[in-house]
Design brief:
- GO terms for molecular function: acetolactate synthase activity; flavin adenine dinucleotide binding; magnesium ion binding; thiamine pyrophosphate binding.
- The chain is built from 19 helices and 17 strands.
- The radius of gyration is 25 Å and the shape is globular.
- The protein is α/β, with parallel strands linked by helices.
- Strand 4 (76-80), helix 4 and strand 5 form a beta-alpha-beta unit.
- The chain has three domains: 3-193, Thiamin diphosphate (ThDP)-binding fold, Pyr/PP domains (Rossmann fold, 3-Layer(aba) Sandwich), CATH 3.40.50; 208-369, Rossmann fold (3-Layer(aba) Sandwich), CATH 3.40.50.1220; 380-560, Rossmann fold (3-Layer(aba) Sandwich).
- The protein starts with a strand and ends in an 8-residue tail after the last helix.
- The strands form four sheets. The chain has a six-stranded parallel β-sheet, sandwiched between helices. The chain has a five-stranded parallel β-sheet with strand order 10-9-11-12-13, covered by helices on one side.
């Protein structure tokens, strides 16, 4: 192949294309002229490079990359403007790290030189945006960070960043891009533009002895229980876990679950309260859960065997996490389930009678819990809309249309009744609010034919910068169904205050000024903020169903429906 001359910015785009990056979610600035020029040149000369998605706020850019990964499993790129753009992105990066979502984050760096170099500073802002350590803004939340220093190293840096982001446990990475090296040109072998990655991601699985110990513990247990938070991660894992709990009659608790782990019609799905099962458990399988229960509210028995499994069973990024870990099974969740299922198979015959007895007892106990939930749901059908009723209606929509719900402090999975794998994603357990709506946009971009529902609280909706999100939805033609649960404030703040000070001064004042929001509905009068089809509001208990039916024609045309 011939040698060609191109800039670092050009090679950056070509390497991203080679790594199967379809989109660059970008909020650019004066640091990106070389990238913009490189992109324009590629388009003008018929070369394929990633699409640019203009995101007028960095939170939207991070969220859309997050959502696109959920829909495709492919790592995408985000470009932000120097330190100020990176600061805006930091909240989303914290969420990415918490949820093990791999994203390539590039931050423009204010020009290093004042003169004599192509790309040197040409505005006063170049001085105000300089930091000695720009990456420090997000270093604790990324797996790897560096700054481009030599232009001809851009290809190897991008390949390395992609490999590290895609390695277990997955997560975001960051590379600073000073303007001068981006502008610099150099000779490169033309074959390097679209070559495969020079580094491959790291994958691993539990050692055979640990799988055998875990299988033996589960097979011999009298009262085993599974606690899961982040779901089975794939449709294959979803099916394997369904089979495992049915064959071994093991109840599964989704405490603060962020994804669907079992179908709602599985008789072993044991709700969201760990306390019901924790005290009796002699073997606990913790599935990718940063906090499977709250230790302050009750811990497991001293003689209980605790099996921690997931990409990072010890959650090594967290300074404090004191949950027992007698056996660790490290690897991709669905692959670990496959190994565990295989190891349990020869042990099943000897325990068949015991498992049958446990199944009858466990399913009866779970049915009692379901009866209580059904009674609460029935009571919720009168008066003001409640979270259980809203959750039920959204779940009905998602099941009917094979849709996906992206929720933020609005949906209660135990009432949604979801039956499909990968049909639900809840906000990251890091508290960086404002992610659900942009994640839904990214998911819709990845899954154009599917119904995507963003169910957000009023406070979370404001955190998402809705003007930006609706603008992107309009420009990109992303018909997300947005449901805003308006409770007039930040409910988590109110609940947390009451939990710590149940008899305090703030307790009688349910809408204390510190977490109260006012006049959210005023946006309806501003056509600039209205989604296509307009906002829909109904005050009665049938509101969620009516609003959903009103929104479906705008987001999910009849010809695209499933089921």
């Amino acid at each position: 192949m011939a040698s060609i001359t191109l800039s670092a910015a050009e090679l950056l785009l070509h390497r991203l294309q080679a790594l199967d990056v379809a989109y660059i979610f970008i909020n650019s600035g004066t640091d990106y002229p070389p990238v913009i020029e490189a992109w324009a040149k590629a388009r003008a000369t018929g070369q394929k490079v990633p699409e640019l998605v203009i995101c007028p706020h960095e939170n939207a850019a991070i969220g859309m990359a997050h959502g696109y990964y959920l829909g495709t499993g492919k790592v995408q790129a985000v470009m932000v403007h120097t330190n100020v753009g990176l600061a805006n992105a930091a909240c989303g990066v914290i969420n990415l790290a918490n949820s093990n979502i791999p994203v390539l984050i590039f931050g423009g760096r204010t020009p290093i030189s004042e003169h004599s170099h192509f790309g040197c500073r040409n505005t006063p802002i170049g001085y105000g945006q300089e930091m000695r350590d720009q990456a420090a803004l997000i270093r604790e939340s990324v797996k790897w960070d560096f700054e481009l220093r030599l232009a001809d190293q851009i290809g190897e840096h991008v390949d390395r960043a992609w490999a590290i982001a895609s390695s277990l446990p997955k997560g975001p990475v960051y590379l600073s891009l000073p303007r001068e090296p981006l502008c610099e040109t150099f000779a490169v072998d033309e074959a390097a533009l679209q070559a495969g990655p020079s580094q491959q991601p790291v994958r691993y699985a539990p050692v055979r002895e640990d799988i055998a110990r875990a299988a033996e513990a589960i097979a011999c247990a009298r009262h085993p229980v599974i606690f899961a938070q982040r779901g089975a991660r794939t449709a294959e894992g979803f099916a394997r876990l369904d089979s495992l709990v049915r064959e071994w009659a093991i109840p599964l608790v989704e405490y603060w679950g962020t994804e669907v782990t079992l179908s709602a019609d599985n008789p072993l799905l044991a709700g969201a309260d760990p306390s019901v099962w924790l005290a009796d458990a002699d073997v606990i399988l913790v599935v990718d859960s940063q906090a499977p229960w709250m230790i302050a509210e009750g811990d497991c028995r001293q003689d209980c065997t605790v099996i921690q499994m997931g990409p990072d069973p010890l959650f090594s990024r967290y300074p404090v996490r004191g949950y027992r870990a007698d056996i660790n099974l490290a690897g991709e969740t669905d692959e670990v389930f496959s190994l565990l299922e295989e190891a349990l198979r020869p042990l099943q015959a000897a325990r068949q009678q015991h498992v049958a007895e446990r199944a009858a007892y466990t399913q009866n106990r779970i049915q009692q819990q379901k009866n209580q939930r059904d009674a609460l749901l029935h009571a919720s059908q009168t008066g003001a809309i409640t979270k259980p009723w809203l959750s039920y209606c959204l779940g009905h929509l998602a099941n009917q249309h094979r849709g996906r719900i992206v929720s933020e402090l609005t949906t209660l999975p135990q009432f949604a009744g979801l039956t499909q794998a990968e049909s639900y994603y809840q906000e990251a357990l890091a508290g960086g609010l404002g992610e659900a709506l942009p994640i839904a946009l990214g998911l819709q971009l990845a899954r154009r034919e599917e119904l995507i529902i963003a169910a957000v609280g009023d406070g979370s909706y404001l955190f998402a910068n809705p003007a930006v999100c609706h603008h992107i939805a309009e420009v990109m033609k992303l018909p997300v169904l947005v449901v805003v649960g308006n409770n007039g404030g930040w409910g988590a703040v109110a609940g947390g205050t009451k939990a710590l000070y149940p008899d305090g001064y703030a307790a009688p004042r349910g809408n204390h000024s510190s977490h109260r929001l006012y006049h959210l509905a005023g946006f309806r009068r501003d056509r600039r903020l209205q989604p296509r089809g307009g906002p829909v509001g109904f005050p009665g208990r049938r509101s969620p169903r009516r609003a959903g039916r009103s929104g479906i024609p705008h987001t999910h045309p009849p010809t695209k429906r499933a089921g």
